[in-house]
Amino acid sequence: MLVYGDVEHIENAAAVRASISKMMMACIDMQPSRQRHEALVRAFILTGELVQGLADQEFGRKGADDMSVSQDAGAKLLRMQARAIMRSWRNGFAGSLSFPEDWRAKLDCLASADPVRTKRAEGYAFYAVYPESYIESASISNLTPKTVVIGIRSIGTGLAALVSAALGAEPAYSLRPTGHPFERRVRVAPALSKRILADPETDFAIVDEGPGLSGSSFGCVADWLQENGVASGRLHFFPSHTGEPGPHASEPHRTRWRDRPRHVVSFDDLVLKPQDPKHRLQTWAADVVGVARSSWRDLSGGAWRGVRYRDPSHWPPSYMQMEKRKFLMEAEGRAWHVKFAGLCGSDVDKARRGSLLSEAGFIPKIAGTCYGFLIDEWLDGTPLDHSGVSRRDIVDHLGRYLGFRARHLPARSGGASIQKLYEMATHNIAEAAGSDTAENLRCLTGTPGRLAGRLRPVDTDNRLHPWEWLTTTAGRRIVKTDALDHNAAHDLIGCQDIAWDVVGACVEFELSSKERDRLVDLVGREADCDLSDDVLRFFEPCYLGFQIGLWSQARASVDGAEAERIENTIKRYLDRLPPMIGP
Known about the structure:
Layout: E1 8-11, H1 13-29, H2 34-62, H3 69-90, H4 103-108, E2 116-119, H5 122-126, H6 131-139, E3 148-152, H7 156-167, E4 173-175, H8 190-196, E5 204-207, H9 216-227, E6 235-238, H10 251-259, H11 267-272, H12 281-289, E7 295-298, H13 305-308, E8 326-331, E9 334-340, H14 346-359, E10 366-370, E11 373-377, E12 381-383, H15 391-408, H16 418-433, H17 435-445, E13 469-472, E14 478-480, H18 498-508, H19 513-527, H20 533-555, H21 560-575, H22 577-581
Parallel strand pairs: 3-4, 3-5, 5-6
Antiparallel strand pairs: 1-2, 7-8, 8-9, 9-11, 10-11, 12-13, 13-14
């Protein structure tokens, strides 16, 4: 199934260097605080993305990873920044901040006359991977400064620098696995190979997020080291979680993963249960909302359903692995929702957009942010699918909400092209319902390119399911509970024309043709957009194809009652296909 997508940006290296320089200078001028630490981490993440982009650019030219001035300079600059992050963290965000005098010279080496393709680091953006986890895991690993540290691009470029800084080791190397996602390989030029393997009797640290479905990125780097004379007993893994590789891992990779040390400090141990209260998420969030003490409940992995629904038989499905970390914080008779929104400044961006929606009355009030987490008001209420609100009121509210987004929230960047949406839909529907149904889809939608000039990407919601809405206990107001994440999720959709949300609302609320017409009229009048039948007729099968793919992926990792909920959800989408794409 086609579901996931990497967010890539084409950047001007000089412009990115200028941003990094400005951020580092701002950090130097800031007073010691958690806010300064957050700014330092943002500069580090941006530097890692630029170094990754330049390394991949050189890889593309040479066909292999090799030595270069820019990569050496980038590795040293990242280690400088990592050391500053380590000092700030260990000092409880106190103390002065400085960098070696040559940091600007190192930054100036990160140059390219051509545009650079950078990739968003998924762990920082979606999965609550914190740089400090790698500092702490390296610190307790008992590895020596002689350890050779290898990061796996993309995110491993920066993560390896953190391990290197904590070990006191030489600057880290980075390698790019290529090939089939489940059978990755590395290609290393002789000069770089000789440098990495100068002492095969030392220890080697392999650093990345994951492992994922196969763990082949970790596996192929370890394969390459062993093929070049490094004993298995010298290999150490630095992943982002304690689990094993997924179901597509090869047996040799799985066996080695079990046999070799894995150095991990979990998110929970890092910021939920640390000894130093200055490192606790609870402390940060309490400071934002102005309370001294609070009680916490973990809502992650679908646990939020136990709060919103009294009867588990009414629970909606949950793609547990893809849900972001979230918590319910209660204090002094009030409650807040504390949810991971991403490092790199995306938490601040979401808070800014959320304030617009909150002021308009569509979502709960935004209280603030704290190091990757967004805090908003927790409202008592009944899920909309069990609230008894009239259909007309629901349609009218959907119209106002979607019209507001289309009118007031322009897209920060476009998502998948209509051609990519079309390819995704035909592929997923063929996988789930057969090639004949997918062929009927092709006949129905026609050539995607005919719509290109008629569409206008906006900040779409991308998650219109009834369980995402509440009717508040006080005031019987309809409120969207999760409105800021899904157009910037780890999938391929991204920001689309508001037609994507219109068909999403039609599908999820099973609107009649009359209700659909009313919704289209309300949104069209508010936002002055093209919601003609041929536009909606194109987007609806694309929406269904994506949902079928998404929930099919979710189904693969669960059983029991959760599997049944997901299967019923998939069937609902499939059942909508025949009358629309029938022969």
